[in-house]
């Protein structure tokens, strides 16, 4: 197979959602289609002690959480799917955001009984920044949910993206009759769990149990309204992430999932050219290249080796090839590499754009590093700085250990485990994280790797805004709107809450504030 054919098959995507919307359940169904797992419950077995296929690290098993986002890779029909898991729940961290830089499209799951929830909004913004296709799965139609039209307008208003319903639910909960698949021109009858019956629209007259049903009739009127007043389907706008196709269904009942997956794979994009300082690099270029979006540290202090997750961006990867690390301009031979299969980690011999490989890291890589085959040297546009939301002042418990403390912080910050700020007025160290787990991991690793105990003082949830101005007067700040410097000496303000943020903004119009999730110039 040529490299162009390999690239055309690749669909590298992540599933984003708020906890409990059904990400695990949907992922499991996709793995079943791909014959990666044989029975339902394999992924969901966390609570019963069986671990999710993705939870492969020993430490994760011990801690009972998934510290990493892992990768599930499998062939399905004409495609090769790479699903990147985005840690949600209590293990939400900056890795979750970084993982989204390594995918080409995303599936957004929304719980139809709840609508758009906070975590989805944050993750959505990261995807939006990159202008990648976003497909929506409106889950739990087997339950009494909210009005479908209301859900659609919530997507449009809260997320600011136009939507196109590919299918439309007829009834819901106990009265769920099925899906009117306007895209596929057929009615999908819900006969209970795992039971889908496909009836082409042309044959509906022979099915009075549907065509004469009062819910069906009223739903048809709704659909006519959509046809007249709704958005038009436009594959180009889907590709640019301006229009999200919406699929209603039930992950648990495995209803509407297959049609969703098939359509998704058709419209989602294969690996695209990516930007470097030397211009865009085409995926089918002769030279292998990729960048590291995540580093998994081994939590066992006896083994300080790490695994770097590399997204292949161009060319063909072959085990044993020599690459140049752009940041250091040093050549390295890549011998120890792993592919991520859902069941196992296997040695990988070849990989193509869109694939993720794990590289053994004897502490030489950094998050954001670009690796290029041979002697060439360029860098994929650095990973953006993501705004943390949780902040804690940090101190060393025993001042005698101040030196190790500084060394530990410096390394962990450089590695991207956590962000470091300084309070401008006091020079106190402040750690910023996207999720609570990052503090826990920081504390654990400071102890395990640097033998340092730390003390935290929580500053709580904060709204960080960076200051665009070069010069500004420093007289307005206090503990509620705290002036800090990030590690690049850029000024930011940590606002105690939305009220203090708005108050400050309205009263200090000369200070220009930046929300990194809105304005990161990217890709
Ligand atoms: P997450 O990974 O996004 O956090 O969600 P997960 O799949 O774990 O699903 C959260 C809960 O929602 C689970 O129930 C799951 O069974 C349920 N669920 C997922 N999809 C559907 C659906 O289409 N319909 C309905 N009715 N429920 C759905 P749980 O009680 O928390 O877990 P479990 O003990 O039943 O496994």
Automatic annotation (TrEMBL):
GO biological process per UniProt: regulation of translational termination
The UniProt record lists the keyword Membrane: no
Molecular function (Gene Ontology), one example: GTPase activity
Annotated compartments: Cytoplasm
GTP-binding keyword on record: yes
Functional note: Increases the formation of ribosomal termination complexes and stimulates activities of RF-1 and RF-2. It binds guanine nucleotides and has strong preference for UGA stop codons. It may interact directly with the ribosome. The stimulation of RF-1 and RF-2 is significantly reduced by GTP and GDP, but not by GMP.
Protein name in UniProt: Peptide chain release factor 3
Species annotation: Metabacillus arenae
Originating gene: prfC
């Amino acid at each position: 197979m040529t490299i162009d054919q390999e690239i055309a098959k690749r669909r590298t995507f992540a599933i984003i959602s708020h906890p409990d919307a059904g990400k695990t359940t949907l992922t499991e169904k996709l793995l079943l289609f791909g014959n990666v797992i044989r029975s339902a419950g394999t992924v969901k077995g966390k609570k019963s002690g069986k671990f999710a296929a993705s939870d492969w690290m020993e430490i994760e098993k011990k801690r009972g959480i998934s510290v990493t986002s892992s990768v599930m890779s499998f062939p399905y029909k004409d495609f090769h799917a790479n699903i990147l898991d985005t840690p949600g729940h209590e293990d939400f961290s900056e890795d979750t955001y970084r993982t989204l830089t390594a995918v080409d499209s995303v599936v957004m799951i929304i719980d139809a009984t709840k609508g758009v929830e906070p975590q989805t909004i944050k993750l959505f913004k990261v995807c939006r920044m990159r202008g990648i296709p976003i497909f929506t799965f409106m889950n739990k139609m087997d339950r009494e949910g909210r009005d479908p039209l209301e859900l659609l307008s919530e997507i449009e208003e809260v997320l600011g993206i136009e939507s196109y319903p590919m299918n439309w639910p007829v009834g819901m909960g106990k009265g769920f009759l099925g899906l009117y698949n306007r895209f596929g021109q057929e009615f999908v009858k819900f006969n209970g769990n795992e039971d889908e019956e496909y009836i082409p629209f042309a044959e509906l007259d022979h099915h009075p149990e549907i065509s004469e049903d009062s819910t069906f009739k009223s739903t048809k009127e709704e659909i006519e309204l959509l046809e007249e007043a709704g958005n038009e389907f436009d594959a180009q706008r889907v590709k640019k992430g301006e229009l999200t196709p919406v699929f209603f269904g039930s992950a648990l009942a495995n209803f509407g999932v297959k049609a969703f997956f098939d359509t998704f794979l058709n419209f989602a994009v294969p690996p695209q050219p990516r930007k470097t300082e030397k211009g865009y690099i085409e995926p089918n270029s002769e030279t292998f290249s990729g960048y590291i979006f995540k580093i998994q540290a081994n939590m066992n202090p006896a083994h300080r080796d790490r695994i770097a997750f590399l997204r292949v961006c161009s060319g063909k990867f072959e085990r044993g090839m020599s690459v140049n690390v752009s940041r250091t301009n040093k050549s390295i031979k890549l011998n120890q590499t792993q592919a991520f299969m859902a069941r196992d980690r296997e040695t990988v011999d070849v990989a193509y754009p869109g694939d993720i490989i794990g590289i053994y890291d004897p502490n030489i890589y950094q998050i954001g590093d670009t690796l290029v085959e041979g002697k060439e040297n360029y860098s994929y546009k650095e990973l953006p700085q993501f705004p943390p939301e949780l902040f804690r002042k940090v101190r060393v418990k025993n001042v005698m250990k101040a030196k190790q403390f500084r060394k530990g912080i410096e390394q962990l910050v450089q590695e991207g485990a956590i962000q470091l700020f300084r309070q401008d007025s006091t020079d106190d160290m402040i750690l910023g994280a996207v999720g609570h787990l990052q503090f826990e991991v920081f504390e654990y690793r400071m102890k395990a790797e640097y033998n340092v105990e730390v003390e935290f003082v929580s500053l709580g949830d904060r709204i960080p805004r960076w200051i665009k101005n070069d010069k500004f007067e420093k007289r307005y700040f206090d503990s509620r709107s705290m002036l800090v410097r990030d590690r690049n000496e850029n000024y930011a303000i940590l606002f105690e809450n939305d009220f203090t943020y708005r108050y400050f903004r309205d009263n200090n119009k000369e200070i220009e504030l930046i929300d990194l999730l809105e304005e990161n110039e990217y890709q």
